[in-house]
């Protein structure tokens, strides 16, 4: 099911949680809503679900305007972070629940409900556990039951709000991989909310980066990591270094000195780069400073460097080759190899 979100604004007591957000989601896409706490991810998900009404703007499911449709008519499946399964029901009954409470006219016969629930149990790879109760399963298994339960009603859209948030790191990683495979098998249009960038980058076809009720960037994992389009996205996703720069006569300058990079417009701005996207230079223009600490990681050396002038000191961390002689107290000069300057407004 294709979803189109058009200029959605959502206010809570006049407080704008979302400002005119627009987003198109293709049928079968796996979309991550990624952003810090309070950026509006859950609000956007709840609007798609029908648990909230937009203040202005519209949401289309296919060609149908679903903005004001009640939740039970939208045919969406949800899984939340703390998805409470019914404790007194077996796993199979939990999965079948959505079908058993349907009005008689659309409720499948009992044997059919059982058959479908068993099929879903198999799909989430928990065959054999149908007679167990939720407290007899691990956290990861419970989350898979929650997914099977959401799928039982054959939803047009699957909405997951931090579905693995409550689980430990190892289980999270396993479930992540599993969810990707599950999605590829079933092909449901899926939107999931996370504040974990690794989870978003690894899982999603496209990542929607949100901040303060706005969409900052929409793109593939490569787009948002390699081609961030704002200082926010650059610093939110992955490690980054940023320094204030000025641009004059085509040269980028830091601390009043050209650093060997060019930029087409004059003015001031900020340069951003990844700590690994630098090369050490022995002479010529570059950013120079004193190493204050050096430590070895598996295949690289991380050095902390004080750069800038005494009036405007900056402390940065960069990655240098293992065989470099950078030690605490030595002078070092480097130049970013991949970088982006964001001019000040
Ligand atoms: P988190 O990662 O912490 O869940 P989020 O990105 O999902 O954050 P939202 O829950 O969508 O953010 O909240 C966005 C903003 O809207 C926040 O400032 C929040 O306080 C506010 N907000 C959300 N729901 C309500 C509500 N029912 N009433 C009033 N304000 C709300």
Description:
The protein has 345 residues and is an alpha+beta fold. It has two domains: 3-235, P-loop containing nucleotide triphosphate hydrolases (Rossmann fold, 3-Layer(aba) Sandwich); 240-343, OB fold (Dihydrolipoamide Acetyltransferase, E2P). The chain is built from eight helices and 20 strands. The protein has helices at residues 41-49, 91-100, 110-123, 139-152, 169-186, 197-203, 221-226, 231-236; strands at residues 3-12, 15-25, 30-34, 56-61, 64-65, 76-80, 157-161, 189-194, 206-211, 214-219, 241-248, 251-254, 257-262, 267-273, 278-280, 287-296, 301-308, 313-320, 331-336, 340-343. The strands form four sheets. A six-stranded mixed sheet has the order 6-7-8-3-9-10, with helices on both faces. Helix 2 (91-100) crosses helix 3 (110-123) and helix 2 runs parallel beside helix 4. It is elongated and about 80 Å long. The protein starts with a strand and ends with a strand. The mean pLDDT is 92. The chain binds adenosine-5'-triphosphate. Adenosine-5'-triphosphate (ATP) binds at residues 12, 15, 17, 35, 37-43, 195.
Features:
345 residues; 8 helices; elongated; ABC_transporter-like_CS; ATP-binding; nucleotide-binding; transport
At a glance:
This protein is an alpha+beta fold and 345 residues long. It has helices at residues 41-49, 91-100, 110-123, 139-152, 169-186, 197-203, 221-226, 231-236, and strands spanning 3-12, 15-25, 30-34, 56-61, 64-65, 76-80, 157-161, 189-194, 206-211, 214-219, 241-248, 251-254, 257-262, 267-273, 278-280, 287-296, 301-308, 313-320, 331-336, 340-343. 24% of the residues lie in helices and 37% in strands.
